[in-house]
Amino acid sequence: MVRARIVGTGAYVPERVITNYDLEKMVSTSDEWIVTRTGIRERRVVFPDQATSDLAVEASRRALEAAGVGAADLDLIIVATLTPDMWVPSTACVLQAKLGAKKAWGFDLNAACSGFVYGLWVVDQFIRAGGARRVLLVGAEVLSKIVDWEDRNTCVLFADGAGAVVIVPEDGERGLLGARMRSDGEGWRMVYMPGGGTAIPPSHESLDGRYHYLKMNGNELFKVAVRAMEEVARVVLADCGIRAEELDLFVPHQANLRIIQATAKRLNIPDEKIYVNIDRYGNTSAASVPLALDEAHRQALVRPGDLVLMDAFGGGLTWGAALVRW
Question: What's the domain range around 200?
């Protein structure tokens, strides 16, 4: 059976570090408050002249190098992001130009924090159908530019970063074993940015109303996220005939340490099998899973033949899980 197999990973985060102590000087918060509620100690934030594609290109180059694939050999680029460089063109097209991937076509995918996991399933469909053979899948975000730095409930959470993988077809047991995606549009108001689209286009009124910043109902999201991530993970494991205790690594979306721990506990996944880097990077939305995956790979925490479960939840509401045999 032909499967979509990850053959290279890469990641990039901005040089600028914002610690919890830095945030203490900006909003009414404390290091203890942030760490206790989120697990975050610091996060990376771009400089004013950096955009999402700038992070994406660095992560992509590292993934291509790791895979031994040239940009000119790519035939598809998908960028999962909710913070594109601009509305038109897609960030995938900007990235294609920066990489010199002249043969590749591409598009952006917006499933918020679930974007990368959604993208894995989309790439798998293209590969199984014979529509692509060398695919670059990127999760990249510059959330710092849509965060209200006067709102302590959101500015302590979100950050910037990018992760990328190169995916090729492989006839065998390695690759994507199964995936399931979910959406519930009834919950869109739990995390959203009201301004900037056709519903509330940019205006003096929308700027004064702070409509161009992320809004979030964190308490409600916590309860929904844990239930959703557990459910979809169980379905994927059942689809593949795999027990949770057989997993070698669990790579969840890095939204909140308490969400990660609660989900893993429900799935009976021990701490030593969970990859966590939220303490250093915060919530990077679609970038969080590939960023964590790249770190785990480079630290030799995942080896050929290992079973890796990725699980994510985000705005939309969207959520999904994917199981890979490395």
Answer: 177-325
